[in-house]
Write a sequence for this structure.
């Protein structure tokens, strides 16, 4: 097959490596982030994406649940967390969590995505009761819950090791973990955007322990604030290094920074160009992470659809009631119906594939679904 000559000639050696399935270096990553030749990046990323997944685009029917927005940390990047005394803050009771979960059930969701603030009083036992209650009421639904940051906070508050906390939550019902809280691992940046959070190495170490006890997880990178191309490439290289050891990351999700209502609201939002570039470079750098998700809530359904030709193979799910991005100014809807997701995928010339959280096929009728193993 004849491959094109790129406008940015510096990308030509990277194409040679991609064609030979050779690993790209962090320097290659930074060079790609610096390039404006988006079509070249998209071309290469699409080659890799089709090599892994052919014409398939994955999606799921899920619901987000955020039991509380009360948070002891005050990260500059965040518009979601509220202090305990802030009258705008909320904390659901167990009954409310279980009730909320049921509200999205009409489309027979296959996943609850559960994350929240670092609440100073909710105990690990409370969260275990929450998980057990969800499992009792919705036994078929996969519980993807708690970021590495929440796990670290639970461990710190109970003075118990991370491994023990993870095991306890696993025994109570979590099936896997979402990828949030990774932000950017580079410490100088992290100190400015989220100085109250665990450092990058701790995030990676907790992910490693989760994988060791048999929990799969996702991973993310927050871009579009004060990081530079080298910070982005370093972040991806560090995720890739952990994955070489554990194979526990299922999906990578690049997250565009939304500045509204944050302490960094002087920063302009990302552009569609940068959003697509982040999808493409992630697909090219993360040669050992199976899936790259274009999260439509964050990048709009329109860009998430185009991303399916720039390296992404997943568009996330129906979501239902997203809060973290909407507090930070996201203007996208808070949910999409299954039919709308199907339309986005088909109109991009891809084949929709409804998956559960671990990418097993889901077969459904109006109100029920079955996971085909
Ligand atoms: O952890 C917080 C980020 C994350 C802002 O695993 C912000 O399948 C932009 O992790 N602007 C939560 N980003 C979202 C997340 C996620 C989303 C979808 C799917 C999955 C998955 C994970 O959002 C946070 C933080 O990294 N975030 N505030 C903001 N103002």
């Amino acid at each position: 097959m004849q491959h094109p000559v790129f406008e940015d000639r510096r990308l030509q050696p990277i194409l040679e490596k991609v064609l030979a399935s050779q690993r790209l270096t962090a320097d290659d990553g930074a060079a790609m982030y610096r390039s404006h030749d988006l079509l070249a990046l998209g071309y290469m990323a699409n080659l890799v994406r089709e090599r892994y997944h052919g014409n398939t685009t994955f999606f799921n029917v899920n619901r987000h649940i955020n039991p509380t927005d009360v948070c002891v940390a005050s990260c500059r990047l965040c518009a979601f967390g509220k202090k305990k005394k802030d009258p705008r803050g909320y904390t659901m009771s167990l009954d409310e969590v279980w009730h909320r979960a049921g509200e999205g059930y009409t489309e027979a969701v296959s996943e609850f995505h559960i994350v929240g603030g670092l609440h100073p009083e909710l105990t690990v036992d409370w969260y275990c009761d929450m998980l057990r209650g969800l499992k009792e009421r919705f036994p078929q639904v996969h519980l993807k819950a708690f970021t590495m940051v929440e796990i670290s906070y639970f461990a710190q508050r109970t003075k118990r090791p991370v491994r023990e906390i993870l095991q306890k939550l696993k025994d109570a019902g979590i099936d896997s973990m979402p990828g949030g809280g990774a932000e950017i691992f580079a410490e100088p940046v992290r100190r400015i955007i989220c100085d109250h959070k665990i450092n990058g190495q701790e995030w990676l170490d907790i992910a490693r322990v989760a994988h060791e006890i048999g929990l799969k997880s996702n991973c993310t990178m927050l871009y579009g604030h004060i990081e530079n191309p080298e910070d982005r490439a370093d972040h991806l290289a560090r995720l890739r290094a952990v994955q070489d050891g554990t194979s526990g990351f299922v999906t990578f999700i690049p997250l565009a920074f939304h500045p509204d209502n944050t302490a960094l609201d002087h920063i302009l939002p990302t552009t569609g160009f940068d959003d697509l570039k982040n999808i493409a470079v992630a697909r090219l750098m993360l040669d050992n992470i199976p899936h790259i998700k274009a999260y439509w809530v964050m990048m709009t359904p329109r860009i998430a659809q185009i991303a399916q030709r720039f390296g992404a193979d997943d568009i996330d799910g129906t979501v239902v009631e997203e809060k973290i991005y909407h507090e930070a100014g996201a203007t996208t809807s808070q949910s999409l119906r299954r039919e709308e997701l199907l339309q986005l995928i088909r109109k991009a010339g891809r084949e929709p594939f409804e998956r559960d959280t671990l990418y097993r096929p889901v077969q459904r009728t109006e109100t029920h679904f079955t996971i085909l193993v």
Notes: The longest strand covers residues 216-223. The radius of gyration is 20 Å. The first helix runs from residue 12 to 19. The CA atoms of residues 107 and 366 lie 7 Å apart.
